[in-house]
Design a protein that fits this description.
By secondary structure, the chain is mainly alpha-helical. It has a single domain, classed as 434 Repressor (Amino-terminal Domain), CATH 1.10.260.40. The protein is about 60% helix and about 0% strand. It is built from five helices and no strands. It is globular. The termini are close together.
């Protein structure tokens, strides 16, 4: 599961601000935060915009994945 929303809020960024920083469409970011998954290409753009690694955005599920 991705912890995008948690990191975005920790950095005091709104969805529109993250859209501007990452170039990822607003609806896509909203869908990622809701579903907890996305394409690696979008996740890479978001990680770069948030100045975090891809690993930082990932939270293993309870099964240890």
């Amino acid at each position: 599961m991705l912890k995008l929303k948690q990191i975005r809020l920790e950095k005091n960024l709104s969805v529109p601000q993250l859209v501007d920083l990452s170039g990822v469409p607003r609806r896509t970011i909203q869908d990622i935060e809701k579903r907890g998954d996305c394409m690696v290409s979008n996740l890479s753009k978001i990680a770069k915009a948030l100045n975090v690694s891809l690993d930082d955005l990932w939270e293993p599920d309870e099964a240890g994945d």
